[in-house]
């Protein structure tokens, strides 16, 4: 279960729906796994406005991951300054610049935390009711017992 997923999950118990303490779910006894992947800058740019930044920072600190800055990065922070521009000639003789974007260290760190780091085993705990959702083999079980539905 990627850490990015925790940005979109809340407690499934009805009484917690109106409580702000039910979000985010807090990882406990988590066994983390890192699965490396290629950085996807367009995805990071598009997901930035949707991130609940303070909650992501709390989750990262609870898991002992490197601390994130107090303010969320901007889209411009994800790309290093002037990158390599190579001019190529088209058939008509016009010069067209192909710009290769180089991810910044901020982009690499954010990618590592959100998309490469996952919870393999452990629990997700509601901050309101303390209900625990088990995570096994990277999948969280959100099925509730009958008395909590």
TrEMBL record:
Q: What one GO molecular function would you report for this record?
A: protein heterodimerization activity
Q: Name one GO biological process term.
A: rRNA (guanine-N7)-methylation
Tell me where on the tree of life, at the top rank, the source sits. Eukaryota
Pfam families linked = Trm112p
- Tell me its family: Belongs to the TRM112 family.
Name of the protein this chain belongs to: Trm112p-domain-containing protein
Q: What organism does the record attribute this protein to?
A: Periconia digitata
Which taxonomic lineage does the organism of this UniProt entry have?
Eukaryota, Fungi, Dikarya, Ascomycota, Pezizomycotina
